[in-house]
UniProtKB/TrEMBL annotation:
Alphabetized InterPro entries for the sequence: AAA_9 (IPR035706), AAA_lid_11 (IPR041658), AAA_lid_11_sf (IPR042219), DHC (IPR026983), Dynein_C (IPR041228), Dynein_C_barrel (IPR043160), Dynein_heavy_D6_P-loop (IPR004273), P-loop_NTPase (IPR027417)
Lineage: Eukaryota, Metazoa, Spiralia, Lophotrochozoa, Mollusca
Organism of provenance: Tegillarca granosa (Malaysian cockle)
Domain (Dynein heavy chain AAA lid): residue spans on this chain: 800-921
Boundaries of every Dynein heavy chain ATP-binding dynein motor region domain copy: 174-391
Protein's name according to its UniProt entry: Dynein heavy chain
Pfam families: AAA_9, AAA_lid_11, Dynein_C, Dynein_heavy
All copies of domain Dynein heavy chain region D6 P-loop, residue ranges: 654-766
Length: 1330
């Protein structure tokens, strides 16, 4: 600063000296002439001589002055020229001095920059931006002087810390210079100011290449953490910088080798002499020039606090624009080399110009600030002028460079569409790790994919190249995803592709997840109508429209301008029929949208999807596929993705292994590999890994080296059992530099991210072998995996249709498992059923459909026989599929399904599925049909669109109700919400409402994806994200004290011990029944006392100064549940099997407790003899009551105890009466009520079972049931074969969420209907409506 002031001071004095006006000298008046005599001549001569001498001196002085004048003129001219030339530079210097006229102005920027570098490293880009602005606000709040260029407002961090030439140096090194990447660079370029080694969290491993480029001249040593041997000690001794990559942060936190080095960072930064530190169990002499960089693929929040305390955690994040710029440069370098070469040359010239300009400016300042008087030194003045001239020439050269760069940049922009699409693909792929940690991708891995896609594209236009990049990225990534996560990825990619094209507006992503969540977000952004607007004042226009549908449409019109006119026109001009068709249609995604909403020119795909989502949230999954994914990306982007082994082979190399992951298909992966190797006629080496020992690792290492030498394929099966081997695989593959090019390493492993290292996931070709979740995809894959000659295995006309039935049966069993306990009692049993079971069933079917079919007769001769349908059904239900079943009632249902599909009726042309209208395709009945023809018939849209989606309960013989829900929408859209939370904010994605991802809480996701989201069977499938957080934050907040106060008034009063004993004695003393009632009352009293005590303790804590840390964990857990208005888990444990689901409210549960207490009071009041009916659901242990009933029946039946006892069983008869109509106890057994049946309906007038009507609530209440015990041989089903054929033993469970251990079996029947029909429906009953 003083330097610039000194220069300006000298320039001022030069001007004063040159241009100060001189006073004019006045000539004196000459004296009068004197008269001279002759005597005066000598004197005059002497005077003349003196004057001559003076004249001569004057002439000399004149000449000298003329010379000096000429010199002064020259110096003046040079000074003028210099001053004219420096005017522009002077203006810049004056501006700089004015902006920084005191050092105090730097204080605010310095404090903010220091705070930013200290605290913001671990945060994402949005948090960094907010914190940077906050730091400046703090400085302003405390009265610090603020400069005109404020950091994080009109000046970036890199501009404050480094010179433009430093940034240009990064560009020359081919390092990205986008804002975020330069911000990341600020953290990594600190060499002498850091106080802790950088721990770089980079899930895509981009920083590795960045550091290698940046420090290529500094001898940086790179080593993987798992391969670390002596490199660490060597670098410490030599002073070489060390980059440790792919660190396991949990192991690093416990690693004694690094502990002392990490904690001694200050000794290296400030040290000048060598010193010693401890490495593991010995000391190593260190060079202070050593620098350590630690890289991990984990995210910052996963770093242990004990490790973060001694390191500088940095989140090396890339924005989509960063990726776009890098991909654009990469495309030009590979495909437009001439353009890139010209740009590189201009970039180099620009750097040289910048260096010259910096050097010249420095020299000019040095000369102007020197002690030389410029007016006395012409050479110095000319030197400064020459410097300025050279500086101006360099500036002109720089301008020419910029002019030359302009057309190159314009040509470059023509290919931005490719880079933008590539950036979208990479961004969506990398954020899939929010769904599952298994989905890891490195930046280098994507670059290889990007380059390959460009090479294999037709390159006729940027649009076609863009499409090739999209498809290649999608199918490569989707192949490595679990089946259930592929729709998340397809939908995410479609949304982001539309966003890159400018077709997504603010709040539309959020509306897709939850209209209420979108409303809150848009209101925070200011997109809302005034309270008195017509939209907010509108009333529901149609009586048939539900309140939820109208509310969602009103939200859409309130916050989105494009829907306002449509909303206002909705009740006009007969549009009601169009809207009703959309709202009531079974498949609204196929209906023409009302009021020209379907016009693609007027409305965008996302807007049309939002409209359907508003009125039909139950069809959100289907609409997102047909209305959005198919229209944005194409139909090929949704559906089953086969395991493309040839494609995997093409993408792999001897150093890049192929990783086959599976969940349940253990042997399928190995079989696919074996079949593919045989087809390729490739020699293989196979090893099944069973443990994680050193001997296993040595054997695998020898096998791999043998394969590398001989050029054969090596298969490591079940590699998840050998984690140490997986950690060292990359090092093993890199050991031999002369590997045969034919060598490939194949690995099969369970889907378990804890055993598979992230580095292996990022450096392998990955595919997941998973069972298709969609029935259509399952059937198609089964047919695809059949051998081409499968139709030639039998000449029977029904053989083709039998293949179809087998594939459908296989898919229906798996679909039923997707419904959880609504489909099977133990759905996990059926997860193990996969491709191997299908092939086993197929092989058995082939033997039964051979023509002729021969067998051995009793006499030993060979004879023909017909196909044994009973034998096929038995093998399928008991051996092949039934071997996995552990539940008796699941076995019944499985047998019923197999009986339905494996029968003579099921292979007829007119066969169909009741209530589903599923019919066989005509192609299956054509003689000599080919397998490809059958596959095409199944894959044709009409084959499945005639009756809607196959993924419905009717497809697996169940009824549609609130329990038969797949919950796919809950799974997909809550996770999509989580992905959006992790992505950086943009013009269309805002995190203003909730600036950071919310911390999950214990409880279900409350996003409200659809009206069924809170159903107990699907609510747990969601994850907690901002939509759930918004649902909690935006509800009416109730104080915890108020909750406790209100509940204390509603909790029933427990009975006193004396009162209970008194009533027991009046009701017949301590009989088994009375003892049972007494125990039940005691259990209820304990529960009520626990509730009251907890409520009082929490209420007292709210009223006093008792803080949370002074309450027990038990009380804190109860308080947390009460605050979120959930039934506390501690109370549910005391309730046992009668505990409610998570979605039940406190008021509903308290009302049930009140009714149960009233029932117990009636039993105590009237006793066994006068109480007419019994509510089984009121008891904590209803089995105890049934045991007493059976005990009394046996005692009554067997008056003579000397004989043998008969086996007694329960017999039930469903009456036509309700509990209020019964006044007297049953003469035999007892009357019970409160039983709910699931899977069917009950016709009260005829007391018969019936199929559930459409849109039933899921359960049906049956009238009072008479329950009594009789000997097993007297049961009607034993005496009457017809009743045995029609009677179904319906299991009765405590509830649908309790363990499936039946309390009793209830006899239900309908005349002329076989019992297998109800087994097919999965009919069961519960004591509670949940």
């Amino acid at each position: 600063m003083l330097y610039f002031e000194f220069v300006l001071h000298k320039l001022y004095h030069i001007f004063v000296y040159l241009f100060q006006p001189q006073e004019e000298e006045r000539e004196p008046t000459p004296p009068p002439e004197e008269e001279y005599a002759e005597d005066d001549l000598p004197r005059l001569q002497e005077e003349v001589n003196q004057l001559q001498q003076l004249f001569d001196q004057a002439v000399v002085e004149k000449h000298s002055l003329e010379m000096e004048l000429q010199s002064m003129n020259e110096r003046l001219k040079a000074a003028n020229e210099m001053m004219e030339g420096l005017k522009s530079q002077e203006a810049l210097w004056r501006k700089h001095v004015k902006e920084n006229d005191c050092n105090e102005l730097l204080l605010a920027n310095c404090i903010s920059a220091s705070a930013f570098l200290t605290y913001c490293g671990p945060h994402n880009v949005d948090t960094r931006k907010r914190m940077g602005e906050f730091f400046m606000q703090v400085c302003e709040h405390h009265g610090l002087p603020l400069p005109k260029k404020k950091l994080f407002k009109n000046m970036e961090l890199i501009e404050f810390l480094y010179k433009p030439l430093d940034i240009m140096h990064l560009e020359i090194l081919r390092l990205p210079i986008t804002r975020l990447m330069l911000e990341n660079a600020c953290y990594l370029m600190q060499r002498d100011s850091t106080t802790a080694w950088p721990l770089i969290c980079d899930p895509t491993s981009r920083v590795i290449e960045w550091l290698m480029f940046y420090m290529k001249d500094q001898g940086l040593v790179e080593v993987k953490y798992s391969d670390m041997r002596s490199q660490f000690e060597n670098c410490l001794a030599d002073g070489s910088p060390l980059l440790v990559t792919d660190c396991d942060i949990k192991q690093l936190n416990k690693d004694k080798r690094f502990r002392d080095c990490i904690q001694s960072c200050a000794m290296f930064i400030g040290g000048k002499n060598r010193f010693k530190i401890t490495v593991d169990d010995h000391e190593v002499e260190c060079d202070p020039r050593f620098r350590l960089f630690i890289h991990t693929a984990a995210e910052p929040h996963q770093v242990p606090t004990s490790l973060a305390a001694y390191t500088s955690v940095i989140y090396f994040q890339q924005s989509r624009y960063c990726i776009e710029e890098e991909l654009l440069d990469r495309f030009l370098a590979k495909e437009k080399a001439r353009i890139e070469d010209d740009r590189t040359a201009l970039r180099q010239e620009r750097q040289e110009n910048m260096q010259v300009m910096e050097k010249l400016e420095r020299q000019m300042r040095d000369n102007l600030s020197s002690d030389v008087r410029l007016m006395n030194d012409l050479q110095a003045t000319k030197k400064i002028a020459d410097l300025k001239k050279n500086y101006d020439e360099t500036v002109e050269s720089q301008a020419r460079v910029e002019v030359s760069e302009s057309p190159i940049m314009q040509n470059r922009e023509g290919f931005r569409i490719i880079a933008k699409r590539g950036a979208v693909c990479f961004d969506t792929t990398q954020y899939m790790r929010e769904v599952n940690d298994l989905y890891q991708i490195s930046y280098q891995q994507f670059l290889t994919l990007f380059d390959t896609a460009i090479v294999h594209s037709e390159r006729s236009s940027p649009e076609e190249i863009s499409e090739k990049v999209t498809s290649s990225s999608y199918f490569t990534t989707a192949r490595g995803l679990l089946e259930r996560d592929r729709q998340i990825y397809a939908l995410l990619m479609a949304i982001e592709v539309e966003d890159s094209l400018g077709n997504i507006g603010p709040g539309e992503r959020e509306f897709l997840i939850s209209p209420n969540y979108s409303s809150a977000v848009m209101a925070s952004l200011g997109y809302t109508q005034p309270a008195d607007s017509r939209i907010l004042q509108a009333k529901k226009p149609f009586d048939w429209m539900t309140d939820e549908q109208f509310h969602n449409l009103q939200v859409l019109a309130n916050h989105f301008e494009w829907f306002q006119e449509v909303f206002e026109r909705m009740p006009r001009d007969g549009r009601e029929a169009q809207w009703r068709l959309l709202c009531d249609s079974e498949m609204p995604e196929t209906v023409t949208l009302p009021d020209k909403l379907g016009d693609k020119k007027l409305f965008k795909p996302m807007q049309r999807l939002c409209v359907v989502r508003a009125v039909r949230s139950d069809r959100l999954m289907q609409a997102s596929t047909s209305l959005f994914i198919n229209q944005v990306l194409g139909k090929k982007y949704f559906g089953d993705i086969n395991v493309d082994l040839p494609g995997l082979l093409r993408q792999s190399s001897p150093t890049i292994p192929i990783l086959l992951l599976y969940s349940y298909e253990i042997e399928t992966a190995s079989k696919l590999f074996t079949d593919f190797a045989n087809k390729k006629q490739q020699k293989t080496l196979h090893m099944t890994l069973t443990d994680n020992t050193m001997s296993t690792e040595r054997s695998a290492r020898r096998l791999i080296h043998k394969g590398m030498t001989e050029g054969v394929w090596v298969m490591l099966h079940n590699a998840h059992n050998a984690q140490n081997l997986l950690n060292s695989l990359e090092a093993i593959l890199a050991e031999d530099k002369n590997t045969d090019s034919q060598f490939r390493l194949w690995i099969t492993s369970e889907v378990n991210v804890t055993t598979i290292p992230i580095s292996l996931l990022q450096n392998s070709i990955r595919a997941v072998i998973d069972t298709p979740k969609v029935m259509k995809d399952s059937i198609l894959r089964s047919f695809t995996w059949f051998e081409p000659d499968i139709l030639k295995q039998s000449s029977r006309p029904e053989w083709a249709i039998m293949l179809h039935n087998l594939c459908y049966l296989h898919a229906a069993i798996q679909l039923r498992a997707r419904y959880g306990k609504g489909g099977w009692n133990n759905p996990s049993d059926f997860f193990n059923i996969g491709h191997s079971e299908l092939m086993e069933a197929l092989n058995f079917m082939i033997t039964e459909f051979k023509d002729p079919l021969q067998c051995t007769a009793p006499d030993g001769s060979t004879t023909t026989r017909s196909t044994s349908w009973t034998g096929i059904r038995y093998m399928l239900s008991e051996v092949i599929y039934g071997s996995y079943v552990t539940d008796y009632y699941d076995q019944q249902s499985l047998s019923a399904i197999i009986d339905f599909w494996v029968s003579t009726a099921a292979v007829k042309k007119d066969f169909d599925v009741q209530k589903f209208r599923y019919k066989h395709r005509a192609a299956f009945f054509n003689p000599n049909v080919r397998l490809n023809t059958l596959i095409q018939a199944l894959d044709h849209d009409d084959a499945f669109n005639n009756y809607g989606n196959l993924d419905v309960p009717e497809a697996c013989h169940m009824h549609l109700n609130v329990e038969t829900l797949l919950g796919d929408d809950q799974y997909v859209f809550t996770r999509l919400n989580k992905v959006f939370d992790a992505m950086p904010s943009s013009d269309t994605l805002s995190h203003k409402l909730f600036p950071r991802p919310p911390t999950p809480f214990d409880g279900p996701a409350l996003a409200g994806i659809s009206k069924y989201s809170n159903n107990p069977s699907v609510v747990s499938r969601g994850v907690f994200a901002t939509a759930s957080h918004a649902a909690l934050k935006l509800r009416k907040d109730i104080e915890l004290w108020e909750i406790c106060h209100n509940m204390l008034q509603k909790v029933p009063k427990p009975w006193s011990r004396d009162y209970v004993i008194d009533r027991i004695r009046k009701n017949g003393d301590f009989t088994p029944f009375n003892k049972f009632i007494m125990k039940e009352v005691d259990t209820m009293s304990s529960l009520l006392n626990e509730i009251k005590n907890s409520l009082r303790a929490i209420k007292n804590a709210c009223e006093t100064d008792v803080f949370g840390d002074q309450l027990s964990e038990h009380m804190l857990s109860v308080a947390d549940d009460l605050y979120y208005q959930r039934v506390p888990l501690a109370w549910c444990r005391l309730s046992g099997d009668s505990a409610p689901p998570l979605t039940w409210s406190l008021s509903m549960w308290l009302n049930e407790l009140k009714n149960r207490c009233q029932f117990f009071q009636d039993v105590l009041q009237y006793g066994r003899d006068r109480n007419p009916t019994y509510w089984l659901g009121a008891f904590f242990n209803p089995r105890g009551l049934l045991a007493i009933l059976k005990q009394e029946a046996i005692k009554h039946y067997c008056g003579d105890r000397s004989g043998n006892f008969e086996h007694f069983v329960f017999q039930t008869e469903v009456t036509t009466r309700e509990k209020d109509h019964i006044q007297q106890p049953a003469q035999q057994g007892m009357y019970i009520y409160g039983i709910y049946i699931w899977g069917c309906a009950w016709e009260k007038t005829t007391t018969e079972l019936m199929d559930s009507p459409p849109k039933s609530p899921g359960y049906a209440t049956i009238p009072v049931v008479q329950l009594y015990c009789i000997p097993a041989n007297e049961k009607p089903t034993v005496l009457d074969p017809t009743k045995a054929y029609e009677t179904y033993q319906c299991p009765v469970y405590p509830s649908r969420i309790a363990p499936r251990d039946p309390i009793l079996e209830m006899d239900v029947r309908r005349e002329n209907i076989p019992a297998t029909r109800w087994a097919l429906r999965g009919l069961s009953a519960t004591l509670r409506p949940y």
